[in-house]
Amino acid sequence: MAHSLAVGLFRVPPGSSDQLRRRARIEIALCAGSEGYALLDTFDLDDSLRAEDETLQVVRALGDRHPLHALIVAGPVQREGIDELADDLRLITVRVPATRL
């Protein structure tokens, strides 16, 4: 049985270690699996190579090409942009509990 697809988005506090970033990715993957989703990709919203808007556009492009079902969100992300993206792509948003990061 095929699993529905999800994309992970996370933000960690400025200056966070690579270890914390890895932890966020792992927790997103664990959350996706426990919710029954196959994780297509995970994005750091504070990636030094892309601005947040650019990252959300990449996720939007993935949603246009793949049958995404959910966004798995971790860390202190601004709901405004995430909610707009989820509404546009008709996705549900699943939040990783803050206690897991």
Task: Explain what this protein looks like in three dimensions.
It is a single chain. The chain is an alpha/beta fold and 101 residues long. 43% of the residues lie in helices and 26% in strands. The chain has helices at 18-35, 52-65, 79-89, and strands at residues 4-10, 37-44, 68-74, 92-95. It has a 4-stranded parallel beta sheet, sandwiched between helices. The longest helix has 18 residues, at 18-35. The protein is globular, with a radius of gyration of 13 Å. The protein starts with a strand and ends in a 6-residue tail after the last strand. 25% of the residues are buried. The mean pLDDT is 92.
List the helices and strands and how they pair.
Blueprint: E1 4-10, H1 18-35, E2 37-44, H2 52-65, E3 68-74, H3 79-89, E4 92-95
Parallel strand pairs: 1-2, 1-3, 3-4
Helix pairs in contact: 2-3
Structure, briefly:
The protein is 43% helix and 26% strand. It contains 3 helices and 4 strands; from the N terminus they run βαβαβαβ.
**Physical arrangement of strands within the biggest beta sheet:** 2-1-3-4
Tell me, briefly, the overall form.
Answer: globular
CA radius of gyration: 13 Å
Number of strands: 4
Assembly category:
single chain
Order of helices and strands: EHEHEHE
Q: What portion of residues is helical?
A: 40-55%
Q: How would a textbook summarize the main sheet?
A: 4 strands, parallel
- Strand-pairing-aware structural class: alpha/beta
The residue-averaged pLDDT reads 92
What proportion strand? 25-35%
With helices defined by DSSP (H or I, 4 residues minimum), what is the helix count?
3
Distance between the termini: 30 Å
Uncertain parts? none
